[in-house]
């Protein structure tokens, strides 16, 4: 952690439950329901069934279930994506999965392993924010505040090192007067650098940690505003359990 954002970051970490409590756990389990237009752009269908998401807090590792069949789940790390059965049989895998998105545009179709990788890195980052900002090599700086309908939201610009698999190396995070995350801007590098503004709300408290229960990612226009008619991804998160 370095740069001119460390004072703001400290307040943000405390508002979300604090690093000491965060470091007492190793994983989180949650129920997720996913929607939005991105899946159709990728030639995929997305149902509204709840799925079980598991994210490891201090290593880049995640799994969602069911995936593609009732007895299948994903096994995600940055260097490998796999689909396996619940009793451990490998159905499909891809090493160096990020490379498989090279040359992709916004509507390049995704196969199940593309989708599994996207789910893995995206949900890992969402369920570890803002604590992942303290990982080695992550640089944080405070930039000019943003006026959101008359509310001044303070902003952190976060530079992620190459070993952190995430949407894009540079991302902006907006915080309200209580230091809770309210908005997250990035480009979806695996989908033609699609510019997105994700609003987060309906915070859940679980075991003293606070996480947004609703995430809505919209296409972001040239003036840094969300285009409300273009909802790319919707995620509802519930039943958070840290262990």
Description:
With 243 residues, the chain is mainly β. 15% of the residues lie in helices and 47% in strands. It has 4 helices and 13 strands. A hairpin with a 5-residue loop joins β10 and β11 (194-206). It is globular and about 50 Å long.
Draw up the topology in text.
Elements (H helix, E strand, L loop, with lengths): L5 H10 L3 H5 L3 E9 L2 H4 L9 E6 L4 E5 L6 E6 L2 E6 L4 E6 L16 H17 L10 E10 L2 E9 L10 E6 L5 E8 L5 E13 L2 E12 L5 E17 L1
Antiparallel strand pairs: 1-2, 1-13, 2-3, 4-5, 5-6, 7-8, 8-9, 9-10, 10-11, 11-12, 12-13
Index terms:
single chain; 243 residues; mainly beta; outer membrane lipoprotein receptor (LolB), chain A; ten-stranded antiparallel β-sheet; three-stranded antiparallel β-sheet; 13 strands
| CATH architecture field | Clam
Number of domains: 1
Shape: globular
What is the CATH fold-level name? outer membrane lipoprotein receptor (LolB), chain A
Mind telling me the CATH class? Mainly Beta
What's the end-to-end separation, in Å? 26 Å
Summed up:
The chain is mainly beta. The protein is built from four helices and 13 strands. Helix content is 15%, strand content 47%.
